[in-house]
Amino acid sequence: MFRQKISQMSAMAASMAGRRFTSKAMATAAFAAGAGAFTYSAMQKQQSIIRCDDSALQAKYDKYWPRKIMILFGPAGAGKGTQGEKIVKELGIPQLSTGDMLREAVSQGTEVGKKAKAVMESGGLVGDDILIAMIAERVQSEDCKSGFILDGMPRTLVQAKAVDELLAKNGEFVSLVMAFDVPYEVLEERICGRWMHKGSGRSYHVKFAPPKSMKLGADGKPIPETMKDDETGELLYRRADDNEAALKKRMDSYYGATLPVLDHYKGRGIVRVVNANQHIDKVWDDVKAKLVNK
Fold this sequence. Notes:
Layout: H1 2-16, E1 30-31, E2 38-39, H2 55-64, E3 68-73, H3 80-91, E4 95-97, H4 98-108, H5 111-121, H6 128-138, E5 147-151, H7 157-168, E6 176-181, H8 184-192, E7 194-196, E8 203-205, H9 244-266, E9 271-275, H10 280-291
Parallel strand pairs: 3-5, 3-6, 4-5, 6-9
Antiparallel strand pairs: 1-2, 7-8
């Protein structure tokens, strides 16, 4: 009987591949990319997996199941971008940053993008309603069907609750918050030595990851004209807020408005703290270990 039921469910799953399902009676049914796995939302407290023939894919799915809806949490300079790229490769899900999503929505001329463009052109700040609508639009994409990573959002408790409400409409919820912990003085060193490539977003650091072209002046500081991107040879730049005064202001905002977001999710048992004040490879080892289901 059990084998017969699994066979029937497998046939049903195969006929539904690639489609999105939502209802009040049954929460979202989703497929892990290539894994052939059919899942019910934990809101119904029912979980079942249809095994696939590819043992390698199945092993990876078993290791990281259920579908990951992650938040990367931590101040600027904590290493979220660097580790996020590694998580993307490991899980095969996209990293969604608010900045990238805004630029993409505006360039594609979506309804949300048009609203955001109008606000920005008027000199205003994009509101939470537009940011949430932008996320709702983006996560409908095919590359998000196995999960996604939010980077730079939510930054306030209001935003966190709005994200929760958005996910709840499809019977989903944040499954993991990866929090990167770094001492203030380390953040200061990292941020104040950071240089960026405008076209690609590649990041360099005068101490930890200098460009090959970097040369130092008599004062021991890098000569701006020698700071060039390794791949394109284009000049790098420093963000206007990558300085001590701006960092203090950003950290005051982080401690006051953003840390409560972490408390919001701690009670659910989904927050995993990573010591980001260690070698980059060691940080990744810790991150990877905390991605695995317990």
